[in-house]
Automatic annotation (TrEMBL):
The active site is at K52 (charge relay system), S135 (charge relay system), S159 (acyl-ester intermediate). It is an enzyme of class 6 (ligase). It comes from Nannochloropsis gaditana. This is Glutamyl-tRNA(Gln) amidotransferase subunit A, mitochondrial. One of its GO terms (molecular function) is transferase activity. Residues 3-485 form the Amidase domain. It catalyses: L-glutamyl-tRNA(Gln) + L-glutamine + ATP + H2O = L-glutaminyl-tRNA(Gln) + L-glutamate + ADP + phosphate + H(+). Belongs to the amidase family. GatA subfamily. The keyword Nucleus does not apply. Its EC number is 6.3.5.7. GO terms for cellular component: glutamyl-tRNA(Gln) amidotransferase complex; mitochondrion.
């Protein structure tokens, strides 16, 4: 069965470290589902799915790849997960990620790095291993290796689209609020979006239809009902085929935002971008230049807002309410003085402070600590007006400019990342990794739907002679996932 094939692929590729937790009972679950339901439970009946380890799964450890949550077993499932299960999907495991979603390479995980399957060919010559991308790198590798047919990821600033591009997959980040965040462990709440990674655009449409739609458990989840995309996407393709085209885009306008043509863009990305524009033109679309002047502000704006929200969201991990407890326990530091001895209030406060400090210093990795500290800083009285307030204003300006561009054209076409998959080594300067997000953060800040589509293979600029996937990004209008998916099919 497809389940058995996925489970054996999972075992064969375990060296790539894509799973934090493997659910070995998935096969029995599938047999039970098959036995009990002679009729299909739903559109994903019996389909093996991988879930990023920041989505809560009832009774199954959910770590966000952090030591802080290494033993956390949630009593409930995220809405996206329950909807997948209700439609018949079977979760085969929880996938590795950058701790709390903070990173672009699945490098900052308490459970070790995830390796891009495309770099396996390079290993023979003792070449560097390449990054699978991040933070949903484990989800990408699970789908790329055939260990699951689709995966749930989360995208705050590119974490679904960038690993999809690095592994040769489709990665869809829906409109903010299209899919419920209930049960998704928070990183930056105003940006966090559940998304899907699949092999094809049609698969992404199918999974989106299952998980999308309003949810009373998430007040930021949009009220608008989700009009199913899958049937329409397939129909559009069928009627174009009858007209002799892969997909007909007659009457559609595609914008090429000039500001994405940055200096860091490598040659293969430029070539793919031009080729993509040609494909869309051949399918009947009008391709024209557009401008989003604030693009150069997107990256700093994103990091100020993401770190600020993270510092607030992660304050709940104090070692007291739940999660990891630092070794310097409250009781130990108190008993030094002897319980019942005349502890002053100040001693108590110091003990509590030391305990929380120990829990956080030991429970959070370096990258998370860096971001929490930066976030606290930009929210402090001294820095609020200089950083946080400016970032909020820049976000509004960027959103307005993107919506204006999208009032002239239907979709924007851009590269996903400036370079292909890079070597999996910790950079000397942590900010170096952040540059990789320059193409993906604008849609996140504007809350717009965006999709990464694999379009080509090109020689890696990091490992000579090694072919690696190249992806392109389409950004759509607010809530226009259906149109985005139809255009994406023309690039496949
Ligand atoms: N790489 C970006 C960051 O580190 C985006 C991560 C994400 O989308 N979760 O914040």
């Amino acid at each position: 069965s497809v389940m058995q094939r996925c489970l054996s692929r999972q075992q064969e590729t375990s060296g790539l470290n894509s799973f934090v937790t493997v659910l070995r009972h998935a096969a029995e679950k599938e047999a039970a589902v098959a036995g009990r339901h002679s009729v299909m439970k739903g559109p994903l009946h019996g389909i093996p799915i991988a879930v990023k380890d920041n989505f809560c799964t009832a009774g199954v450890r959910t770590t966000a790849s952090s030591r802080m949550l290494a033993n956390f077993v949630p009593p409930y499932s995220a809405t996206a997960v329950s909807r997948l299960e209700a439609s018949g999907a079977i979760v085969v495991g929880k996938t590795n990620m950058d701790e709390f979603g903070m990173g672009s390479a699945t490098l900052f995980s308490h459970f070790g790095k995830t390796i891009n399957p495309w770099s396996q060919a390079a290993e023979k010559g003792d070449k560097p291993r390449l990054a699978a991308g991040g933070s949903s790198g484990g989800s990408a590798v699970a789908v790329a290796t055939g260990s699951a047919l689709a995966a749930l990821g989360s995208d705050t600033g590119g974490s679904v689209r960038q690993p999809a591009a690095f592994c040769g997959l489709v990665g869809l980040k829906p409109t903010y609020g299209r899919v419920s965040r209930h049960g998704l462990i928070a990183y930056a709440s105003s940006l966090d979006c559940p998304g899907v990674l699949t092999r094809t655009v049609a698969d992404a449409a199918l999974v989106l239809d299952v998980v999308a739609g309003r949810d009373p458990l998430d007040s930021t989840c949009l009220e608008q009902p989700h009009r199913p995309c899958f049937d329409r996407t397939m129909e559009a393709a069928a009627s174009s085929r009858a007209a002799g085209l892969a997909v007909s885009l007659r009457g559609l306008k595609v914008g090429i935002p000039a500001e994405f043509a940055i200096q860091e863009l490598e040659g293969s990305a430029v070539t793919a971008w031009e080729e993509g524009a040609r494909l869309l033109r051949d399918a009947g679309a009008d391709v024209l230049p557009v401008s989003v002047p604030s693009i150069p502000l997107a990256l700093p704006t994103y990091f100020v807002i993401a770190c600020a929200e993270a510092s607030s969201n992660l304050a709940r991990y104090d070692g007291i309410r739940f999660g990891f407890r630092g070794s310097k326990s409250l009781r130990a530091s108190r008993s030094k003085e002897g319980i019942g001895s005349a502890d002053t209030e100040e001693d108590d406060q110091r003990a509590l402070h030391d305990f929380i400090t120990a829990s956080r210093s030991q429970g959070f990795g370096d990258e998370v600590q860096r971001r929490v500290i930066s976030g606290c800083r930009v929210l402090s009285a001294q820095a609020y007006a200089t950083y946080y307030e400016k970032a909020l204003a820049a976000r509004i300006r960027l959103r307005r400019e993107m919506n204006t561009a999208l009032s002239h054209v239907d979709v924007l076409l851009t590269p996903v990342t400036p370079t292909g998959p890079f070597p999996l080594t910790t950079p000397a300067e942590p900010a170096a990794l952040m540059v990789n997000d320059v193409m993906t953060v604008p849609a996140s800040l504007a809350g717009l739907p965006a999709i990464a589509v694999p379009v080509d293979l090109a020689p890696s600029s990091f490992v000579p002679g090694l072919p690696v996937p190249v992806g392109l990004q389409l950004i759509g209008r607010h809530l226009c996932e259906q149109q985005l998916l139809i255009v994406a099919r023309a690039l496949e």
